[in-house]
Fold each of these.
Amino acid sequence: MINKILIKKDVYSYLISPYFYISSLVLLFTCCIQFFIFQRFFVSGYGTSDLSVFFSTIPYTFSLIIPVLILQISNPECENNFPFRSVTVILSKLVSALIIITIMLVPLSIIPVCVNFFGSVDVNQVICSFFGIILYGILAISICLLCSEIINSKAAYIVITVVTMLLINSLHQIPVFIKCSQFFTSLFNELSFTWHFDSFSKGIIDTRDVFFYLITSSLLIVLTFFYAESKKGRKFFSGKSVSTANKAVSFFTVLIFVFLYTDNSRIYKRFDFTKDRQFSISAHTKKILDSADEPVRITYYRSKELIPRYPEVKDVYDYLKICASENKNIFLTLADADKKENQDILTNLNVAPQQIQSVNNNKIEYIKVYSAVVIEYLGKKEVLPFVLSTASLEFELALRFESLIKNKNHSVYILCGNEYNSNDYSYMQLLFNSSNIQCYPIEKESLVYIQDQLELEIPLIIFGTAGLSFDQSAVIEKFILKGGKVLLATSQYSVNINGDWSITKNENDTFIPVLEKWGIKFEDKIVNDLSNVRISFYSTDNNNSLNDSAQYEYVNYPQWISVLPQKNTPNGITLFWASPITQNKSLIPLCNSSSMSWTVSEFSKTVQEQTGLLYVTNPFEVEKAPVSDPLFKKEQSVLAAKLQDKITGLYNFETNENPNVIILADQYFALNILLELSGGQMSDFRNIDFILSMILELNKEDELLKIQYGGIKNKSLYKITDAVKFNKAKTNVFITVFAVIPGMILISGITIFIIRRRQNEKYKI
């Protein structure tokens, strides 16, 4: 069916052509500029090791390169004299073009290598992405071959083919700008070439996508063959041959639609090749589902407006189908959330719609959408109010499956031992409740009276200890000594958050001596870090209007530490005015500041008397980096730790051989106002995720903890924390991708040109 001579001729003719080297440079520069510059890879807070943007650029670049490639390897005048059948010529062109674009992709492999120096790159995901690009390349080559047979004019061929490729690649974007029915929205999505590439970029091989590329390519090749034969005078579309053509085209068309629109998981399969199997069900979740003796009904209420704007919701439905396939008693339904009766059901379940931005007729509008999962079992219901991706989906599902099927619920006590109350930490309670975790606030004034009612199996979260009396501290100590689980967020300092942010020392804190007896000591210092939060300040020259002369000023604030992703903080957290915890053998460190952190000591008594300040906390006056201190020493500080040694009481004559206590050096890290300030318009809820993981740690729920961490892929550039080393590595990357690799391509092209010129002169060609 294919001819090696033709393949060698086409590959050789293109490799010695300047178009090959120009195309290679265009592909390389386009992808690198888009990823490193337009996506601000090296800008703090924007850089990510997620290569999906990089790979998504390649199909659009191929739309420009492959039409020219097919034009270069096609020579109709010579092909008419070939002693080969049309199918042989066409398939040989296909293989030749595929070999050429594969060679073009080789220089791009340097990009994942460069990114891996800054952050973690999943090799399996990269391999799947390149595999998807190859399949896309086959389809793109096929459509270009068809166009080359239909269109005789080279100029018209280039224009029509490029425009057609770009349009087909962007079909899934049409519903974003034009309001379409559900049918046409699905149709545009499924017919888009790049829509089917999305799973490959995530490290998933979906047989529907594979079949779409292969079957559609086969259909286009068949049509190309028919046109090629008809140009040779063979009447394939008249007489008896028309039935053959119709049968072939109809067969492939039916196959395409079968694999596009079937939802039967037994027909298609999804293979998760990611390193941590992020898109697969864990053994723990499977075990829970297997224990379901009665039907479990899962209903996914989804608005059609979500699909073109958030393609990730497709993965949500696919993941739910995987869950349903694990047990014959699990039934899944996809419900249209835009129907009035379904909206009424969601309203009765206290599920509110979310607003998203929509562009319609050049007007920005806000529409309300739903993406809720409702689980029913034995007459009971659990709800996931809003789901957009699979990032934490399995964890949220596992909590609800445990609650429904195993009747296992999660609860926590919340105690504010500082000047605030539980309402000031309401964000945490709301998010816990949405994760099916019941919160029980405890007033410190009633702590002594209800101490016998506290259940040891329920973790106790304590924010601050400066406001606790001796009796209240004794109750907490007794709770811990009896085996209670405690997450204690405190320090020896208090901050006037609603005022000038001045810091005072809690001299009369009754629980700090208890911690010191257990080997937990806070240093009289404040941790500063170059990895910090950037605070935005809003100002206006016109006090009467917020719209006139409005300005934003951004200030790096090193006393608000942005803890980099670590083992116990895979998504990072933010800490406010934290003090370092003195390291000793009785503690297991859980998270640290970065390698570019430093500590600031209290002012001397003289300075305190003169200024009235213990520390400088003004964002505009605080030292952004310790450049003025010649004795500066970089040091990582322990910010959270867990007790591991035997403890004895200070107020109670009891001991605990195996205490279950976690200490965090910040009493404000879950405070509503600070979450808002540190997160901007989108509050920083990473801290609440950290609390949740610590609760699982206290409960020794290792399987759930593994699921929670497994859903989080660290995409930050965390490997190089030293600013000097980072800038040096950045320079090396730019030199490599914009100078070394292009230089090697140019040198190869020039060398080939010189060799060809000498051969032409030698043989007088």
Note: The chain has three domains: 4-271+723-763, 279-384, 411-710.
Amino acid sequence: MSLKKLFLTVALLGSVVAWAQPADYAWTTQSKDSSESMPLGGGDVGLNVWVENDDLLFYICRSGSYDEHNTLLKAGRVRLEIEGGVADAPFRQVLRLGKSAMEVHLQGAVITLWVDVFEPVIHAEVVSPKAVSCRVSYESWRYEDRPFRKQEGLQGSHKWHKPAGLTTTADRIVEDEHGVTFYHHNPALTVFDRTVEVEGLEAVKDQLWNPLKHRISGGRLWSRDLRYEGQRDGQYLSTSFRAWTFRSLKPMRRQGFMIALANDQNEDTTAWQEQLQKRVTYAETNKTARAATERWWADFWQRSWIEGTGEAAEVTRNYTLFRYMWGCNSRGSDPTKFNGGLFTFDPEFVVADRPFTPDFRNWGGGTMTAQNQRLVYWPMLRAGDFDLMPVEFNFYERMRPNAEVRTRHYWGHEGASFTEQIELFGLPNYMEYGTKRPAWFDKGVEYNAWLEHCWDTVLEFCQMILETYRYDRADIERYKPLIESSLRFFDEHYQYLARRRGRNALDSEGKLILYPGSGCETYKMAYNASSTIAGLRTVLESYLEVKTMQGDTVQAPWRAMLERIPEIPHRVVDGREMIAPAVAWERINNTESPQLYPVFPWRIYTMASGRDLSVACNTYLYDAHALKVREPKGWKQDNIWAASLGLTEEAVKLLHGKLSNGPHRFPAFWGPGFDWTPDHNWGGSGAIGLQEMLMQTDGQKIVLFPAWPAEWDVKFKLHAPHRTTVECELQGGKIRKLDVLPKERAKDVKILLPTK
């Protein structure tokens, strides 16, 4: 496989006209069930919308709606039936991506759905050429207490454990003449308390932030066009439900309803009710909300795009559909979850032996497995979606004090110890921590063959924060305590461990001894794992660079720590020098390739780096374990590494495995992979790889088409550091348009295309 490239220094080739809105996505037949739903969302609300047997249905999910078990609850399901329409009228369901609205042509009527970006309000309108009646039902499976069944604990923090009497408590649902109000109100005791108990933190419990106690999530469906009709019980798939049904006051040509949502945390519901009423008033009186929402989405789509033709058409279309889904949580209180985000559907369509409620997803709703979570957020940098990224950063900053408390409690030193499977309150998942632990085992370490000593994923989120400054000069002051505390943990913890083993805190060269460590979840009991070293080096160098850019002279402690970071270990196998997973390790436990983390996420070896890539290429092409575990599904990153190293044929093959149509009707509902459907870390890793094929950066350098087949026509707009955008069109193997802003950055651009 040749790495020979044609290098061209590029001058500005003219201006690119602003991209039109993305193409509509449409179906002309109805769906069989919820697995054939289409996503719609905005702000922090996601809907799964489908039409089944002439009934329009949608699930509602809002960021931050956690129950007492840390399950991310659906707000319910809505069903709309039209009476008196045209039975044989053509059907069409259209997602108008440019405006983030959905139009459903059903029985001669046009049903329009849209979600307000700025307030959590859902709008539904029915317009018909003849007067029709509508039946609107709010359906809930939480109308009664629901005891957990075997394996159902996987939807929250109890995982495979099923404590006696474990129950999801019923929602409060109250109807009136024109609407229904519904909410879930967590009790005082939640899985937070169980976690504190198992992890031996009762002595510091009053210092810990508890986001689950008395948490309230819910909303109100209402319309002056509707009148309450009554209740009925029913069954959808394997789950019973109760419906609160409303009927049109009379047949009308134009009618509609709205749903407002509210979350709060309070023992009393008064404040929640007041918040909800304000949302209702806003929805009824604000005449500019839809225009403002459309402007937001128009701006979103003009920030960035990738559009290909021919072989590139399907993967770039699906990239756009996936980007749409991550754009639906721009204002969430909590990050877009890797295992479905806001768009999960009935679980039996994902795994047949999971006949549970629509709230179910494997790997929980509030347990943020960091290795997976990071892949959802990395592609937002190149897409220019900087305003979406603080949702993830705020999540870590909120957790930081709890992570610092546990460090001091267990070991008596400073720094935030963030584990891999971390709860939204900053502690390890109690089942992954281990409920059957030897008394002598370190209380701060998970008694878990996969997760023990796995601390370093937080460094990727620290790097993302620093990159938002380099890309967009984002205000990152509030996150510096997170960056510094995360770095301090490694410095103090590994010196602490070394002093427990012997007299000296550092090795003979004055370097940290990163043992026991972990190369991801795979190379266990590792000595100086390359993934950890690359992360520490990169974050420290980036932090120092940002401090210099800001004129901050307080750098000495961080420069001293950088001097204590060891070198990335190498090894020679069959005469080839490669990156080693670690200096040494005791066992291999999973199917990750941390020896390639210096390529991505740490981007030490890329086509833009200017470094000799032979060691990294040898690792990708010949490392026996890396080859054994290579595949495109789920969170696998082989496509990113191939693109970063300029291995075009490999990158293309793996890209098809990532971004070709998924197994469900909506093509960007990939999965389940190793997790759930829709698999957002599958889509995220695919998006990163696609971006890397088109553009890579290092310092001031911008390299275009480092792993792109010249015969694939494409146009794109992507973002680079220093508030730079690059718009480009490749057609017939030639650059037809190139626009770099600001213009002085054009001198930093190089184009790499394969020689004929």
Note: The radius of gyration is 26 Å.
